[in-house]
Each structure stands twice: as structure tokens, then as C-alpha cells.
Task: structure prediction
Amino acid sequence: MNAKKSLHSKASQIRLIIFDVDGVLTDGGLYFSDEGHELKRFNSLDGHGIKMIQEFAIEPAVISARSTKTVEYRMANLGVKHFYQGQENKLIAYKELISKLNLKPQQVAYMGDDVLDLPVMLNVGLPIAVANAHDLVKKNSAFVTKKAGGDGAVREVCDMLLKSQNNYDKAMERYLS
Result:
């Protein structure tokens, strides 16, 4: 089986995709106001991709080592029901989540950028790295995006999942008619 067919086969089974935040949903930069409030830049293309996969029974989730109100707000805005913040050991949250959703590892994708993501990435069916991820993360991924984190990489993956599950054309129909 060639690499493209293998990726398509893995992606066709995905029911849950877990995203890291800093460096995946954002550009990884840490921005602070003069008052010390943390700000994050999210990409609207990524957000729409997350909303589209939900329409086709792919559940999005977030596991992040950091904890901010900004992430809570953005996840609520996107309708993401499962998000874990302040998770230094992301594997604990991952195991809790797949148990709660009654999923097998091969039904899960994880998208990360740094070595903190590897423990979960090594336990899912489809590990994904952003283009600007740490080399070790890319080496241990089944798919590496062309786009950088915070710059449309999540949308690239959402589109790939929809295509692998034969739902991309259905997802785009309403925009073309």
C-alpha cells in the first residue's frame, strides 16, 4: 500500500481529532497586552474547517498545556465541547476523552507541533504535524501539513479528512449553488 492510500485509509476512520493550541490553532507566538493579558491569534479558515467537520460526525477536541480564557472563548465560539487546558501530561486527558467517547485509538487523529504532543501522537491512529513543527514531531507523523500552525494548517487537515471520508464535495455544495 503506498503512502497516499495508507493516509487515506487512516483518515477515513477518524471520528475525533484533537488539536494542540499554541503552534497549531495559533502561530505559537505569545502576545501580552500592557496590562499583562495574554492574547492569541486564531485563523478564521481553521475555525470554519472545524465547524464543517462537525457537520460530518468528526468531533473536534483540544488538549493544551497552557490555560487561558481566550481558548475557552474560542472553543465555545466554535462549538467544541471537549477541551482540556493546563495539561502538562496530555496522555491523561487523551485517555479520559477516548474512554468518555468510547473510541478506539485508530479512530483518533492528533495534530501537534512540539515534543510535548508526542506521547499522545504515538497513541493515535493518525498523528499529524504542522509544517513548522519540531523535527521529531514531523518524523513521528503520518501527515505533515504544507501550512504552518495558525496559518491554515488546521483547515488543510479538516479538508483532507472530509475528502478521505467522501464528504468534501457535500460540504462545499452549499457554497457553489
